[in-house]
Amino acid sequence: MTGYAVSARDVSVRFGDTRAVDEVSLEFAAGEIHGLLGRNGSGKTTLLSTFAALRRPAAGRVLVDGEDPFENERVMEGVCLIRESGDVLELAKIPENLRYFANARPTWDADFADELVDAFELDRRKPVNRLSRGQQSAFGAVVGLASRAPLTVFDEVYLGMDAPSRYRFYDLLLADYVEHPRTIILSSHLISEVERLFAGVAILEEGRVLLAEDADTLRSRGTAVTGPSAAVDTATAGLTVLSTRELGRTKQVTVYGDLDEAALAAARAADLEIDAVPVQDLFVHLTNREPS
Ligand SMILES: Nc1ncnc2c1ncn2[C@@H]1O[C@H](COP(=O)(O)OP(=O)(O)OP(=O)(O)O)[C@@H](O)[C@H]1O
């Protein structure tokens, strides 16, 4: 499989009294797109920094492609972490940045980088720090994508982008991943937008792992029931409701957990639609708060 596997084993990182990452054990399989989710301050950025050797765990081990990434030139050449701040040469213009990354990254694709700069309509004549916030985020995305690093990590990189740019990013990422499979980890609050990309999802809460499983298993933890309001209410009575949406006389109720056989049979008899639940709804339920 192409791409680096990442393994965190009992990893802890502390800032003074704050346990930013607290005995986290997670496996990110090689060659897949993973989502790392969690509320603000749950430890996502801190954990991701250990994968890129920007921080050393106080305890536990991080292995990237089977090795400790810290001061490990071979592994680090293949790791690209892009944070919201961009992780680029801010005072330099885009062409100078592209030359720099072409030298620094063995897997860099210069033609693809140029295509991406055009796709995001970025002005090559301005220093990066003179681009708008959204354009700077888009340039971070360009660098992350064109690096084609065996481990590419996007930490909230698309937060500054407007919706059309974000969707362009998701589409470009998916298309390029299909052509050049590698390990990609995305952290995001915009779960409903990115969840279709994920093969696996891990959720952190207060520095600990709340859940880690493949995205389909996570989706199957809930059930969406859609149909005429009264019939949907009957089918979901007494269950844990995650969300309710109404459109005219049609209602969709998402519940946590499976419907039992009798409820399923009744729902089918009433011609209700039964589907998996959006990860966003499960996330809100599991972390008990609207993501910001
Ligand atoms: N340099 C630092 N010094 C002190 N505390 C820090 C530092 N960086 C992070 N923390 C603390 O560690 C915890 C985890 O922060 P982290 O940035 O990893 O969370 P996050 O999940 O990425 O949050 P967000 O979604 O808001 O970006 C928070 O309580 C934060 O206040």
TrEMBL record:
The keyword Nucleotide-binding applies. GO terms for molecular function: ATP binding; ATP hydrolysis activity. It comes from the Bacteria. Residues 6-231 form the ABC transporter domain. Signal peptide: none annotated. SUPFAM superfamilies: P-loop containing nucleoside triphosphate hydrolases (SSF52540). InterPro entries: AAA+_ATPase, ABC_transporter-like_ATP-bd, P-loop_NTPase. Keywords: ATP-binding, Nucleotide-binding. The keyword Nucleotide-binding applies. PANTHER family: ABC TRANSPORTER, ATP-BINDING PROTEIN (PTHR43158:SF5), SKFA PEPTIDE EXPORT ATP-BINDING PROTEIN SKFE (PTHR43158). This is ABC-2 type transport system ATP-binding protein. It comes from Murinocardiopsis flavida.
